[in-house]
Amino acid sequence: MAKQHSPRFLQLVAEAKSRIRECRVADVRAQQQAGTPFVLIDVREESEYAAGHIPGAIHISKGVLERDIEAKVPDPHTPLVLYCGGGFRSALAADALQKMGYTNVLSMDGGWRAWTEAGLPTEK
C-alpha cells in the first residue's frame, strides 16, 4: 500500500519539481553501465540505506545534506543523481542543492521503489 502524503507536503514537492530536473531509473542504470561519471546520492534515512541501496550510492540523508554536501562533493558542477524512497524527498533535496549553487543535479523519479520494482541490482 502506498504511503499517503499530506496535501501541503505534496504541494511543496510539486513546487520543487517545477524547478528541478528529473531522470528515470532506466537513465541512471544506463549511465552506470556506460561508465558515465556521476555521484549517486541516497538521501533516505540511515536505516533505509542500511537495509539496502543502489550499488555505488553514497549516503547523505536529506536532514544533513545541506550541511555535509560540500565536504563530500566540493565541486558544484559535479553531476549528481539523488534518490529517496519514491522521488519526493530527492526532489526537495535537489531543489536545495540548486539553491546552494550545484548546477548539475537530477532527482531520480520513482526512487528506490522504482529501482527495486525494475529488478535492478541492490546491495547492503
Structure description:
This protein has 124 residues and is α/β, with parallel strands linked by helices. The chain has one domain (25-117): Rhodanese-like domain (Oxidized Rhodanese, domain 1, 3-Layer(aba) Sandwich), CATH 3.40.250.10. The protein is built from six helices and five strands, in the order αβαβαβαβαβα. The protein has helices at 7-17, 25-34, 46-51, 65-72, 88-99, 111-117; strands at residues 21-23, 39-42, 58-59, 80-83, 105-108. The chain has a five-stranded parallel beta sheet with strand order 1-5-4-2-3. Strand 2 (39-42), helix 3 and strand 3 form a beta-alpha-beta unit. The chain is globular.
Name the features:
alpha/beta, Oxidized Rhodanese, domain 1, five-stranded parallel beta sheet
The average pLDDT value, as a whole number, equals: 96
Fraction of helical residues: 40-55%
Strand arrangement, major sheet? 1-5-4-2-3
Number of domains: 1
Number of strands: 5
Low-confidence stretches: none
Q: How would you describe the shape?
A: globular
The helix-strand sequence is: HEHEHEHEHEH
What is Rg? 14 Å
How far apart the termini lie comes to 24 Å
CATH fold name: Oxidized Rhodanese, domain 1
The CATH architecture assignment turns out to be 3-Layer(aba) Sandwich
How much of the polypeptide forms β-strand, as a percent range? Answer: 5-15%
Instruction: Specify the CATH homologous superfamily.
Output: Rhodanese-like domain
Continuous helix count: 6
- By secondary-structure content and strand pairing, the structural class works out as alpha/beta
Return the CATH class: Alpha Beta
Largest sheet: 5 strands, parallel
